[in-house]
Specification:
By secondary structure, the chain is an alpha/beta fold. It is elongated, with a radius of gyration of 23 Å.
């Protein structure tokens, strides 16, 4: 009985096109006409992720006699970083990748490459705890382990150091401050949360 691949099935693609995925498969030796029995599935999954960093995971099923199926989970960008002058996506596992998605409205992490993971940690917390504020952010600066968020309205948020223990409290305070300020001021130059542990929040309207 023939074990030559006659059909390749793909599920789960969102931003990645079918042609892009098929080209990546071809680059790792999988295409119509390949030998299905000689395809090592465990190593194949790792090769695909290496060839396409946007692939977070892939399940592979051999459907004998001549079909193979790929069930793909793509990475979800949480922000962007600039590499060699080009803006690329980054996810909550600190994996950078080129994508067909529109990433222009995602927060850009502005820091040295060895500090990017700290910015990702902050964005992940904001995205999970308050997506409304997360979507207001344009840029994230990290200078000497102290964060400043630049909102799309050009308001600066002096966040200070990041801590898992207080991020929820800090975020709730920021949300309340923003809501109160919206009803009182047309524009805000900055909100300073660095002394929030002392019960102080400094707000400067324009």
């Amino acid at each position: 009985m023939s074990r030559i691949i006659k059909q390749i099935e793909i599920e789960g693609l969102k931003a990645i096109t079918e042609n892009e995925f098929l080209n990546a498969l071809s680059n790792v030796g999988i295409k119509v006409g390949s030998n299905l029995i000689e395809t090592y599935l465990i190593k194949l999954g790792e090769k695909i992720k290496k060839a396409m960093p946007e692939v977070k995971s892939v399940r592979i099923k051999r459907n004998l006699p001549n079909r193979i199926k790929f069930i793909v989970t793509e990475r979800e960008p949480i922000g962007t970083v600039e590499i060699d002058g080009k803006l690329v996506a980054i996810d909550d596992e600190n994996v950078c990748f080129v994508t067909n998605r529109d990433i222009s409205n995602l927060p850009q992490i502005m820091t040295d490459i060895d500090k990017v993971s700290d910015g990702v940690k902050l964005l992940k917390a904001l995205n999970e705890m308050n997506r409304n504020i997360y979507f207001l952010i344009s840029k994230v600066y990290n200078i000497n382990d102290r964060f400043t968020l630049l909102l799309k309205s050009n308001t600066k948020i002096f966040w200070g150091e990041y801590s898992d223990n207080v991020v929820d409290t800090q975020l709730k305070l920021l949300n309340k401050t923003l809501q109160d300020a919206e009803s009182r001021f047309r524009n805000i130059e900055y909100i300073d949360l660095r002394l929030f542990n002392e019960g102080r929040v400094i707000l400067k309207p324009i």
